[in-house]
Write a structure and sequence with these properties.
The chain is of the alpha+beta class. It has 3 domains: about 50 residues, no CATH class; about 55 residues, Ribosomal Protein S4 Delta 41, Chain A, domain 1; about 80 residues, RNA-binding S4 domain (Structural Genomics Hypothetical 15.5 Kd Protein In mrcA-pckA Intergenic Region, Chain A, Roll), CATH 3.10.290. Helices cover about 45% and strands about 10% of the residues. It is built from 11 helices and 5 strands; from the N terminus they run αααααααβββααββαα. It has a 5-stranded antiparallel sheet. It is globular and about 50 Å long. The two termini are about 20 Å apart.
């Protein structure tokens, strides 16, 4: 199942901003202020030494929280990536980065992946001029992604985010006005900054 609990709690537990809260909001400011304070009444006082399996599990869960996938979806991505010749971690990241909801988020069309997933679910995103409602759709190189209507880009929280925040677009994407294009093959550089991919691969390779 997809995690639906308190989002700041997850980021504080991992001591990494997982992009689950909209930048510029009070909730995000609170997270940044308390990011190094573990959640719970006793904080770090009762933290036990982690086993190798526990570390692998947490990194696997971290990537699930980042992309909002279920365990079944992530395992499927790993199975596909592991069947290819080469670096399994790179292929796994490519599959995750090609998700339509992630592309919408990386382009800065929404403040979070959760918001992007909701926008796609409601049919408010077009790919090459066609309405799609599957967040897990794999965007192909050369495809254009944009809002499905004027009303979609004028949703208050989206409009406010885009007006007040500057988004750094990955080099494998380009953005002109509200239309983004996947121009290259996504790599593992961005995910690798937040997740130990080696531990994720080890977890599924047991």
């Amino acid at each position: 199942m997809r995690y639906t609990g308190p989002k700041n709690r997850i980021s504080r537990r991992e001591q990494v901003d997982l992009g689950l809260k909209t930048p510029g909001t009070k909730a995000h400011a609170t997270l940044l202020r308390r990011l190094n304070i573990p959640p719970g009444q006793h904080g770090a006082k009762r933290r036990r030494k982690e086993s190798e399996h526990s570390r692998q599990l947490r990194e696997k869960q971290k990537i699930q929280y980042l992309f909002g996938t279920s365990e079944k979806q992530l395992k499927k991505y790993f199975d596909v990536a592991s069947r290819k010749k080469g670096n399994t971690g790179v292929y796994l990241c490519e599959l995750l980065e090609r998700r339509l909801d992630n592309i919408v988020y990386r382009l800065g069309l929404t403040p979070t992946r959760a918001a992007a997933r909701q926008l796609v679910n409601h049919g408010n995103v077009h790919v090459d001029g066609k309405k799609l409602s599957s967040p897990s759709y794999q965007v192909k190189t050369g495809s254009e992604v944009t809002y499905g209507s004027k009303a979609a880009k004028e949703i208050p929280y989206i409009q406010e985010f885009r007006e007040n925040n500057e988004v750094v677009i990955p080099e494998w994407l380009t953005l002109k006005k509200e239309t983004g294009t996947l121009t290259g093959i996504p790599d593992n550089s961005l995910i690798g900054q937040q997740v130990n991919l080696r531990l994720v691969i080890e977890y599924y390779s047991r």
